[in-house]
Automatic annotation (TrEMBL):
InterPro entries: AB_hydrolase_fold, ABHD18. This is AB hydrolase-1 domain-containing protein. It comes from the Eukaryota. SUPFAM superfamilies: alpha/beta-Hydrolases.
Amino acid sequence: MVSVNLGLVHYVLDHIYGTVLHRTKLGTPFFSKGWGGTKLDLLEKMVKQLFPEARCQNWPPTAVQPMWKTVWETKSSCLREGVFRTTCDPRLIEALPPESHNARVAFLTPKSVSPEKMACVIHLAGTGDHSFERRLRLGGPLLKDNIATMVLESPYYGQRRPSMQHGSKLQCVSDLLLLGKATIDEARSLLYWLQNEAGYGKMGICGLSMGGVHAAMVGSLHPTPIATLPFLAPHSAVVPFCDGLYRHATAWDALRKDAATLAQDVTSLTEDMAQKSGITIEQVRERLRSVLSLTDVTRFPVPKNPQAVIFVGATDDGYIPKHSIMELQKAWPGSEVRWVTGGHVSSFFLHNDAFRKAIVDALDRL
């Protein structure tokens, strides 16, 4: 009989999925409209304010008062959806597309327990997660543990997606940083609302993949201990976009053309002229690596209670290598890494119980 290495199968499946999704020319690639011009300049300056060397980390955040409507209600639980104006800096609101100016959340709560005796975890979106449904399915069974679930819809996703954007493929590099900065600001405001308005006793933040990176940043910056749960998350966006499978879905020629245009200060430049300008694809890759290094979570402060930080990685992840997750754990001594068997894509579907167990355990450590 022929033995099958299941780990290799999962790893290969990630690459097959990535090939079909990212290497084919069926869809628009990431950053097809270039770097983002002055928006990127603004973001580079503002994102640096989050790092530990910055004197002010903007706390308390802008207060929110979501406008709620009940979606459904049973004897034991209730699902509401809320809308509020994004809590970004006004300069960032101007940079965001109009569709992203209003944030949306879904809020799933048990009805028999008062908030001060409960916990609530905010779930952030991974790449391609445009709806509330998958994260509500992850959080729903936690109601029996008196853990409420709040799901935030990211800018550029779902009903907040710009009309000219196709699927999840952001049009400019600046869009990726805008998405991240707005998500972080909104999540911090929601945590403040949960604590000071809703009165929850314990709180947490989690996310898968891209959402895990944002969750790590939010947990790092929160001034009091919260459970922080990055699932299948790299230590930086450099990993998937410059070294991983997303590099096959990136419009490198468009980025090179845009860089050449900026360098020569002309209004239009053909592909041939871009090639003749002396800017190479390798230089463009290094520029993108430099920009995305702003998302390196290892540069962020250690959370107030690192024992309440649990990273979950996949043993055979074709998108996120093990060493990237271990860099996060090394940067935050006292945190824990758990491993699930499988790849990046398969773990989204096969290991919800492991993710839920991590959420319960991290909250118990507060």
